[in-house]
Structure prediction request, 409 residues.
Amino acid sequence: MVRSPAQPEGRTRTDKARRTLSIFGATGSIGVSTADVVLQHRDSFDIEVVTAQSRAEELAETAIRLGAKHAVIGDPDRLEVLRARLAGTGIGVAAGPAAIVEAASRPVDLAVAAIVGAAGLEPTLAAIDAGADIALANKECMVCAGGLFNRRAAAASVRVLPVDSEHDAIFQSLEANNLHAVERITITASGGPFRTATLDEMRRATPAEALKHPRWAMGPKISIDSATMMNKGLELIEAHHLFDIGSARLDVLVHPQSIVHGFVTYSDGSVVAQLGVADMRIPISHCLNWPRRVETATPRLDLATVGTLSFEKPDLQRFPALRVARTALENGDWATNILNAANEVAVQAFLDGAIGYLEIAATVEAVLDVATGTVGGTELDTLEAVLTLDREGRRLAAERIDSRGRRAG
Ligand SMILES: NC(=O)c1ccc[n+]([C@@H]2O[C@H](COP(=O)([O-])OP(=O)(O)OC[C@H]3O[C@@H](n4cnc5c(N)ncnc54)[C@H](OP(=O)(O)O)[C@@H]3O)[C@@H](O)[C@H]2O)c1
Prediction:
């Protein structure tokens, strides 16, 4: 039987008409869309905390627009800018990674986890421990520490509501009374900017080309993950943890129009899907307001104009990251932790011009090969164990990238 974020029934924290909310990663793509959704229904939310890493001016502006009580910046060197911008507003300021974790401990009904990368794990766990339901955009949290994450959420009796459009689609397609009858879960992928590219074109791909997503406007890390399809691999792992379903019953289908975000196949042959235009304000609004639906200022889906919906199997030759991620999922939490760490390092190296596009997946696979013989099977029972393994994955990836650079130079 799969699990639904709607379980267990009867809890009331997110049923309140007016909710307290914190937004972690408020200046990013998801953060900005979240602010839009909140501002459309200003009377439904009280904002406790907003955070960012370095964009202090944008953070200050967001804090003022949302009427937040606290604004926290990760980079301590940006504190003075934040303080100056918020002088006289009464909004509290703080800086540093520990201050973000501390801010996450402030009790709220719902915490939006929209920091990018494993950096979001500690604040999200702190919010869970403080009893907040989680609107989860930060999939890397789940990928680097899925088992620990779920145990902490269960211990605190909090709900994890998936913001990722594919997982939100599955959330919407799961029938509470028929979880035992779910046969398969399928998430879709646009195919990214290189869906039809040849391997030769991919070899020469520049960061600017890889960042140009055909359907979604997103932050740089997830845009590169979409180009390699590692994003879909991370989402398979996220789906496994969110819905408690094994790799063998999880599918990925390439759907270039990005209209059908995911679907559930039931044992009676019925397929229930969620459709919508490619606009993250739809899943964000669903999570922020769940179990109610409220008006959202997004374009409406017009299927006659879309005309054709097409689907194809992913090409694992040209997109090996998806295969590597699925193997990691099947090998367990230690492997997905290493996968995530190595991928974060490789994506940054690609953006910095240190490696080519095809080297991203190759680096992750090579790091996993080495790690299998050294840290394979490591139990991730504690946050410390998760962070130690994450550092090892980053070290191995940096070492490989560095040694290749030296050989090339
Ligand atoms: N964008 C989408 O459409 C989308 C869809 C589904 C899921 N997601 C997931 O949502 C998460 C956020 O994606 P995004 O596209 O919104 O990313 P983004 O635009 O790059 O924004 C990232 C946010 O995190 C902050 N941040 C970065 N590094 C940090 C650190 N070390 N400590 C604390 N805060 C840090 C950034 O602050 P600064 O602005 O100051 O740098 C920014 O507020 C990712 O996990 C992504 O996979 C995104």
